[in-house]
Amino acid sequence: MLPNSPAPRSPRVTVVIGGVAGGMSAATRLRRLDEAREIIVVERSSAVSFANCGLPYHVSGVIAERDALSLQTPERLAERFRLDVRVRHEAIAIDRAERTVAVRDLASGRVESLHYDELVLAPGAAPRRPADVAAGAPLHTLRTLDDLDRIMDRLDDAPAGNAVVIGGGYIGIEMADNLARRGLTTTLVQRGGQLLGALDEEMAAPVADHLAAHGVALRLGRTVQHVAADHVRLDDGTRLAADLVVAAMGVVPETGLAAEAGLAVGPSGGIVVDGSHRTSDPAIFAVGDAVEQRDAVDGGPRLVPLAGLANRHGRAAADAIAGRPVAARPALGTAIIDVAGLAVANVGWTERTARARGRAVRVVHSHPLSHAGYYPGASPMSLKLVVDAASDLILGAQAVGTDGVDKRIDVLATAMGAGMTASSLAELELAYAPQFGQAKDPVNQLGYIAENLAAGTDRVIQWHELDAELAAGAALLDVRAEAQLAEGAIPGARWVPVERLREAHAEYAGRRIVVHCRVGQGAHTAARLLAALGHDVVNLDGGFLTWRDGMRARELASAGPDRLEAAA
């Protein structure tokens, strides 16, 4: 080295706080972009890279080996990516001026100060817990492998006992389903009158009935007041025996470390980041469940604690650190869950959300088969599309069924992300063979209906608007085929099949007519016929099946019986 020459510049140091999807995606992507950089990952739990979405399925044995959930160990990450991964270490303070993080070794208690050039926060979210829990109560949450191990130890102590799950969201339903599969007498307690708040009520009602039919007793519209050592007490005084209690009441972003460091936290409760995932401090990035995201529909702030988004965030933050251009996309919130063999999926806004935010909407329900009906194995599904009435843009979609739900929601999410109109779904060219779909795919069918509504070719009312129509004097005509009448009937409806409408229509002259069939398609034909004959006619969207599910939703949410017993 020449006299008075500067010392060689040491490699930059990036510290990542938190592993799993967001943190490990950031660390491994950054290593692939920069071999020289020092990368330190600090993780509070005992595992830094694991499949947290698979945890409930080890409880039932669907995923038999626990090791299958462990994706990478610190040793393998060091060998493959030259990452310094420190598990059972907790970041306790950030000094932004000095660019250091204080990290405590949870085994020894020793605190070390780590310098950083860039800091990536991936703290995740913490599960909510009941307020009143007795000492020694068997209350557990499920976010990490450590949580899973504690639950499995408890189940080994009470292999055929009673389980209570608090919360009817994704984790709560998955846990209740898998505990029932394991053989426990399982009850799910849900504060609201429906499961899965990401669905509208008529789409959620069949999910509740399906879960109850597969061994889970439901207590809807109830809250847990106290968790004791051997039971749970509800707000109505009911006591439920409990050898295991799982709190799945939602999550809260872990923003304490960020807030204490003076980083901006937004109105949703998440850490504020820009399009490059930078926080209010340019040297600090944040990713994953703790981050406030931009909603794809209206651009507002929202929290979306989903693994796919966390992975995307981690990659984007690494690109930004490495100097690559990054522009974060807004969040659609696309999700899917398996409920005892029933696939339930959603993207974007519900009808409930859209109306609450003042949007004028058009709503489409359909009940197609998963593939061509003449090919063996076709199964029914229910689809719902929420459309902006002014722009025809897709605001959200929901799907429930046993087969083909995943690909339909993915197509709809892709269309929504691309800014396609609902009507343009009719023009999508999708793969077809009778064992995989239909020549008119269910997504295309949604487009046909949306196109008819946008053009005024069809006029519809929703299931929850029918009572008002009948009260105002409208006639309700059931145009189903005779063989379909055994499924039930809407009170006040008169059966007039499509083939007899021409001879019977004069009886309804001067009255508004509501027509319905089983799913809406036959009623569209009837409505067009009656309109051509001079009648004021509307179609009941989604037909009898949607109306039936809506009425079931009201029944479940009513002040009457709040209990769905598990099937014997």
Please tell me about this protein's structure:
The protein has 568 residues and is an alpha/beta fold. It contains 15 helices and 33 strands. Helix 1 (20-33) runs parallel beside helix 8 (307-321). The termini are far apart. The mean pLDDT is 95.
Span between termini: 82 Å
Structural class: alpha/beta
Low-confidence stretches: none
| Secondary structure: number of strands | 33
The biggest beta sheet is recorded as: 6 strands, mixed
Task: Determine Rg (CA atoms, Å).
Answer: 27 Å
Strand order, largest beta sheet: 11-18-12-13-14-33
Percentage of residues in strands: 15-25%
Averaged pLDDT, please? 95
Shape: globular
Share of helix, binned: 25-40%
Tally of DSSP helical segments: 15
Q: What key attributes describe this structure?
A:
single chain, 568 residues, alpha/beta, six-stranded mixed sheet, five-stranded parallel sheet
Write the SSE topology.
Layout: E1 13-17, H1 20-33, E2 38-43, E3 49-50, H2 55-60, E4 70-72, H3 74-81, E5 84-87, E6 89-95, E7 100-105, E8 111-115, E9 118-121, E10 125-127, E11 139-140, H4 145-157, E12 162-166, H5 170-182, E13 185-190, H6 201-213, E14 216-220, E15 224-227, E16 231-234, E17 239-241, E18 244-247, E19 251-253, H7 256-260, E20 284-286, E21 293-294, E22 301-302, H8 307-321, E23 335-339, E24 342-348, H9 351-356, E25 361-366, E26 381-388, E27 394-401, H10 405-417, H11 442-455, E28 460-461, H12 466-471, E29 475-478, E30 494-495, H13 501-504, E31 513-516, H14 521-532, E32 537-540, H15 543-557, E33 563-564
Parallel strand pairs: 1-2, 1-9, 2-5, 9-20, 11-18, 12-13, 12-18, 13-14, 28-32, 29-30, 29-31, 31-32
Antiparallel strand pairs: 3-4, 6-7, 7-8, 10-19, 14-33, 15-16, 16-17, 21-22, 23-24, 24-27, 25-26, 26-27
Helix pairs in contact: 1-8, 6-15
